[in-house]
Design brief:
19% strand
Length: 310
């Protein structure tokens, strides 16, 4: 897949057929443009958000050359927070991970090309599937506006979700087949004074709960970051031992509170030391959808603890 700028003359005739009913249309754009989607009104919408917010429209193109997704992106030059809007995926291509990959590439563009420190988006409560997709990339719920939008006799909340750069890097590394422990540690490698390659080596034996379904590797990777930043570094220094013990407990306790447990097998609901457990995890998409959330959770807690210490 690759991302390119939207070309109205070439692309509109394709995406206009993706939304076929009024309810889906309302969930997509909160009725900011007319239904059914018409070229003139859509052009006005694109022009309006470009003039007001600096938005640029993009499409996602699959490996076979077909357009599979659409979104708009802008960046606030005061806060350096990017924003994704009007995200849409070809309904015939859903369930294949294309939406997730489009969001990953969109976020990667935001961080690498526009210098964003974080990326946000809005999603209505009626679109639970979309929210799960965003969470699998690393987005986290920031705030809820209750009763923000009404469609016929339905009332929908609006959820603001945000993804910061380190968390995206960790989730991206995990999607590239690095262990959860490696992904979390490598995202903080620069702050820890080590190279990314060294982080990969240090974290390489701690994935999947040390391959025994024990403590989640994302949590272990976070503990390695905290150890490198604030750990005990001198012999016979009880105050350093007390500090590192306290920080260790903070990480473990908060991860358990956020996710119910720190144990890999308990988080997944299966024993990944067995072929049956591995098969269950794969068939239920746990490695692709659930594990990235644990990586993201570990980074969130890490940032929280580091912020408190500083």
């Amino acid at each position: 897949m690759n991302i390119r700028e939207y070309k109205a003359d070439k692309d509109f005739s394709i995406i206009q057929n993706w939304i076929t009913d009024e309810r889906t249309h309302a969930m997509w754009c909160a009725n900011r443009t007319s239904f059914p989607l018409q070229r003139e009104s859509f052009d006005r919408l694109i022009k309006d958000i470009a003039e007001r917010c600096g938005d640029r429209p993009f499409v996602a193109v699959d490996d076979d050359g077909s357009i599979v997704g659409f979104y708009c992106y802008s960046i606030n030059k005061d806060t350096y927070e990017g924003m994704l809007k009007f995200v849409m995926v070809d309904p015939q291509k859903r369930g294949k991970g294309l939406g997730r990959e489009m969001i990953r590439q969109a976020v990667n563009y935001a961080f690498d090309e526009t210098g964003a420190s974080a990326v946000q988006l809005m999603v209505l409560s009626a679109i639970a599937r979309a929210k799960r997709c965003y969470e699998s990339v690393g987005f986290k719920e920031r705030r809820i506006q209750e009763g923000a939008f009404t469609f016929q006799n339905e009332v929908w909340d609006r959820c603001n979700m945000v993804l910061e750069k380190k968390k995206f890097k960790a989730v991206q590394l995990f999607s590239e087949k690095m262990h959860c422990s490696q992904s979390v540690l490598a995202a903080f490698a620069e702050e820890c004074g080590i190279t990314e390659e060294m982080a990969f080596k240090l974290g390489s034996c701690f994935g999947s709960g040390m391959r025994k379904g024990n403590v989640c590797g994302a949590c272990t990777g976070a503990l390695m970051v905290l150890g490198l930043l604030y750990g005990e570094e001198h012999k016979g220094a009880p105050e350093e031992r007390q500090r590192s013990n306290k920080i260790n407990d903070m990480m473990m306790d908060r991860f358990k509170k956020a996710n119910g447990t720190c144990i890999c097998n308990e988080l997944l609901g299966c024993d990944i030391t067995t072929p049956e457990g591995i098969q269950y995890a794969r068939e239920n998409g746990l490695f692709k959808e659930f594990c990235p959330k644990m990586v993201a959770s570990a980074v969130d807690i890490l940032n929280e603890i580091i912020g408190e210490i500083h």
